[in-house]
Design brief:
Strands 2-1-3-4-5-6 form a six-stranded parallel beta sheet, sandwiched between helices. The longest helix has 18 residues. The chain is α/β, with parallel strands linked by helices. The chain is built from six helices and six strands; from the N terminus they run H-H-E-H-E-H-E-H-E-E-E-H. The radius of gyration is 16 Å and the shape is globular.
């Protein structure tokens, strides 16, 4: 999964996650004032490999302040795939589906979990957003469910080309600037995720970066 770089180079590039957290903390207040308010639907945020729900607290807090009902996976550290993980996610989705389909946001390997969960339960999933997830070589994302892959060319953990979705209806790839380890607390990611969650599945349109977000997002 890690790019073919010397580890000191990877460490140097991923060290940007710290400053990105500071940037996110400073930008959160202003962003909450300009981003579209959520409709209250449930959003499940899944951590990356070797991480737990603690890693997704900033993003879940931000989305909660926007008006979404956010929750973590509650399955401890993400150590990969197992029957227990699949069963746990299925139960979690069923529990939170009573008020309508749930959006899934998955960071790194968590994005692969999200896609597989949506494949198993397309009736219960509203949209899927992956953050720096290794998608290349895996089965295509679920059909008829809006799916967004957020990637960064500066990612030193998952080569950005591996995060690209194949072309298809309701699929898109959105570039941000930042490290892999900072994707969960990156202002650009917050803008993209908030915009995507606000889309109605029936009228879904590809992401277009707002001009005011040019300091964070590449403009076309």
């Amino acid at each position: 999964m890690v790019e073919q770089h010397a580890w000191p180079t990877v460490a140097l590039r991923e060290a940007q996650a710290g400053p990105e957290f500071v940037s996110f903390a400073l930008a959160a207040g202003p962003l909450l004032k300009v981003l579209r308010r959520g409709d209250g639907h449930a959003v499940l945020v899944l951590p990356g490999l070797g991480a737990s729900d603690a890693s997704t607290v900033p993003l879940r807090w931000f989305l909660g302040r926007l008006g979404y009902r956010t929750f973590g996976w509650g399955l401890g550290t993400n150590r990969g795939f197992s029957r227990a993980i699949d069963d746990g996610l299925d139960r979690l989705l069923s529990t939170n589906y009573e008020h309508g389909p749930v959006s899934l946001v998955g960071w790194s390997l968590g994005g692969v979990h999200a896609i597989e969960l949506a494949r198993r339960r397309p009736d219960a999933v509203r949209s899927v957003i992956t953050l720096g997830s290794p998608l290349l070589g895996r089965r295509h994302p679920p059909l008829h469910i809006p799916t967004t892959s957020v990637y960064s060319q500066r990612d030193a953990i998952v080569t950005w080309r591996r995060s690209l979705l194949p072309e298809g209806q309701l699929r898109e790839n959105v570039e941000v600037r930042g490290s892999h380890l900072g994707l969960g607390h990156n202002p650009a990611v917050a803008v993209v995720v908030a915009d995507r969650l606000a889309q109605e599945p029936e009228t879904w349109k590809p992401f277009r970066p707002p001009q005011w977000a040019g300091r964070w997002l590449p403009q076309g």
